[in-house]
Amino acid sequence: MLDNWLNWHRETLAVKCAGLSEAQLRERSVPPSTMSLLGLVRHLAHVERVWFRRVLDGEDVPLLFSKAEDPDSDFNDVDTASAEEDFAVWRAEIEHARKISADVPLDAIGKQQRHGQDCSHRWILVHVIEEYARHNGHADLLRERIDGVTGE
Prior knowledge:
This protein is mainly alpha-helical. The chain has helices at 2-17, 22-26, 37-56, 73-76, 83-102, 121-147. Helix 3 runs antiparallel to helix 6. The chain is globular, with a radius of gyration of 15 Å.
Protein backbone atom coordinates (compact mmCIF):
# COMPACT_ATOMS: atom_id res chain seq x y z
CA MET A 1 0.00 0.00 0.00
CA LEU A 2 2.80 2.43 0.90
CA ASP A 3 4.64 1.70 -2.35
CA ASN A 4 1.45 2.18 -4.33
CA TRP A 5 0.68 5.54 -2.72
CA LEU A 6 4.24 6.74 -3.22
CA ASN A 7 4.19 5.68 -6.87
CA TRP A 8 0.82 7.39 -7.36
CA HIS A 9 2.21 10.65 -5.98
CA ARG A 10 5.36 10.38 -8.10
CA GLU A 11 3.23 9.92 -11.20
CA THR A 12 0.94 12.79 -10.18
CA LEU A 13 3.90 15.18 -10.21
CA ALA A 14 4.89 13.89 -13.66
CA VAL A 15 1.34 14.48 -14.93
CA LYS A 16 1.34 18.03 -13.52
CA CYS A 17 4.50 18.77 -15.52
CA ALA A 18 3.52 16.98 -18.73
CA GLY A 19 3.27 18.95 -21.94
CA LEU A 20 4.85 22.14 -20.64
CA SER A 21 7.78 24.01 -22.12
CA GLU A 22 10.99 24.65 -20.19
CA ALA A 23 9.89 28.25 -19.71
CA GLN A 24 6.57 27.12 -18.27
CA LEU A 25 8.26 24.62 -15.96
CA ARG A 26 10.46 27.45 -14.64
CA GLU A 27 7.55 29.84 -14.12
CA ARG A 28 7.39 31.02 -10.49
CA SER A 29 4.28 31.06 -8.35
CA VAL A 30 3.94 34.49 -6.70
CA PRO A 31 6.55 36.69 -5.03
CA PRO A 32 8.31 36.25 -2.71
CA SER A 33 8.10 32.49 -3.38
CA THR A 34 10.60 31.02 -5.84
CA MET A 35 8.54 27.85 -6.26
CA SER A 36 8.14 26.42 -9.76
CA LEU A 37 7.27 23.03 -11.18
CA LEU A 38 10.91 22.50 -12.16
CA GLY A 39 11.94 23.50 -8.64
CA LEU A 40 9.54 20.90 -7.24
CA VAL A 41 11.04 18.19 -9.45
CA ARG A 42 14.54 19.17 -8.33
CA HIS A 43 13.46 19.29 -4.67
CA LEU A 44 11.79 15.88 -4.82
CA ALA A 45 14.85 14.36 -6.50
CA HIS A 46 16.78 15.66 -3.47
CA VAL A 47 14.14 14.18 -1.11
CA GLU A 48 14.36 10.76 -2.80
CA ARG A 49 18.17 10.78 -2.56
CA VAL A 50 18.36 11.88 1.07
CA TRP A 51 15.73 9.55 2.48
CA PHE A 52 16.39 6.39 0.50
CA ARG A 53 20.06 6.50 -0.46
CA ARG A 54 21.54 8.36 2.49
CA VAL A 55 19.25 7.62 5.46
CA LEU A 56 17.84 4.19 4.61
CA ASP A 57 20.82 2.69 2.74
CA GLY A 58 23.68 4.67 4.30
CA GLU A 59 25.20 5.71 0.97
CA ASP A 60 27.74 8.51 1.09
CA VAL A 61 26.41 10.44 -1.91
CA PRO A 62 26.48 14.21 -2.31
CA LEU A 63 23.31 16.22 -1.92
CA LEU A 64 21.56 17.30 -5.11
CA PHE A 65 21.14 20.94 -6.09
CA SER A 66 22.45 22.12 -2.71
CA LYS A 67 24.73 24.99 -1.95
CA ALA A 68 25.95 25.90 1.52
CA GLU A 69 25.13 29.54 0.89
CA ASP A 70 21.62 28.75 -0.38
CA PRO A 71 19.78 25.80 1.18
CA ASP A 72 16.87 26.43 -1.22
CA SER A 73 18.96 26.30 -4.40
CA ASP A 74 16.80 23.44 -5.70
CA PHE A 75 14.03 26.05 -6.04
CA ASN A 76 16.11 29.17 -6.57
CA ASP A 77 18.47 28.02 -9.34
CA VAL A 78 16.03 26.98 -12.05
CA ASP A 79 16.54 29.88 -14.47
CA THR A 80 19.47 28.20 -16.22
CA ALA A 81 18.73 24.60 -15.24
CA SER A 82 17.97 21.99 -17.90
CA ALA A 83 14.51 20.54 -17.42
CA GLU A 84 15.50 17.46 -19.40
CA GLU A 85 18.54 16.82 -17.20
CA ASP A 86 16.68 17.54 -13.95
CA PHE A 87 13.80 15.23 -14.89
CA ALA A 88 16.35 12.51 -15.74
CA VAL A 89 17.99 12.97 -12.31
CA TRP A 90 14.57 12.80 -10.60
CA ARG A 91 13.62 9.62 -12.47
CA ALA A 92 17.02 8.04 -11.71
CA GLU A 93 16.61 8.81 -8.01
CA ILE A 94 13.14 7.25 -8.06
CA GLU A 95 14.49 4.07 -9.66
CA HIS A 96 17.35 3.91 -7.19
CA ALA A 97 14.91 4.42 -4.30
CA ARG A 98 12.64 1.64 -5.61
CA LYS A 99 15.55 -0.80 -5.76
CA ILE A 100 16.69 0.04 -2.24
CA SER A 101 13.18 -0.04 -0.82
CA ALA A 102 12.30 -3.39 -2.40
CA ASP A 103 14.94 -5.22 -0.35
CA VAL A 104 14.36 -3.64 3.06
CA PRO A 105 11.74 -4.80 5.62
CA LEU A 106 9.34 -2.06 6.72
CA ASP A 107 10.52 -2.22 10.33
CA ALA A 108 14.22 -2.00 9.43
CA ILE A 109 16.00 1.06 10.80
CA GLY A 110 17.87 3.27 8.36
CA LYS A 111 21.65 3.16 8.43
CA GLN A 112 21.94 6.89 9.11
CA GLN A 113 20.06 9.06 11.53
CA ARG A 114 18.20 12.15 10.36
CA HIS A 115 18.24 15.12 12.71
CA GLY A 116 19.56 12.84 15.45
CA GLN A 117 16.72 10.34 15.13
CA ASP A 118 16.54 6.76 13.91
CA CYS A 119 14.00 6.27 11.12
CA SER A 120 12.35 3.03 10.10
CA HIS A 121 11.77 2.17 6.47
CA ARG A 122 8.01 2.50 7.12
CA TRP A 123 8.49 6.00 8.61
CA ILE A 124 10.61 7.03 5.60
CA LEU A 125 7.95 5.83 3.15
CA VAL A 126 5.21 7.70 4.99
CA HIS A 127 7.35 10.84 5.20
CA VAL A 128 8.20 10.80 1.48
CA ILE A 129 4.50 10.26 0.64
CA GLU A 130 3.74 13.30 2.80
CA GLU A 131 6.42 15.34 0.98
CA TYR A 132 4.93 14.46 -2.40
CA ALA A 133 1.35 15.05 -1.24
CA ARG A 134 2.19 18.54 0.04
CA HIS A 135 4.16 19.47 -3.05
CA ASN A 136 1.59 18.00 -5.42
CA GLY A 137 -0.85 20.49 -3.91
CA HIS A 138 1.62 23.22 -4.86
CA ALA A 139 1.94 21.66 -8.32
CA ASP A 140 -1.87 21.80 -8.75
CA LEU A 141 -1.85 25.54 -8.14
CA LEU A 142 1.22 26.17 -10.29
CA ARG A 143 -0.19 24.23 -13.23
CA GLU A 144 -3.54 25.98 -13.02
CA ARG A 145 -1.76 29.34 -12.97
CA ILE A 146 0.39 28.42 -16.00
CA ASP A 147 -2.26 27.16 -18.41
CA GLY A 148 -5.54 26.63 -16.55
CA VAL A 149 -5.25 22.81 -16.39
CA THR A 150 -6.82 21.40 -13.24
CA GLY A 151 -7.57 17.97 -11.85
CA GLU A 152 -5.47 14.83 -11.46
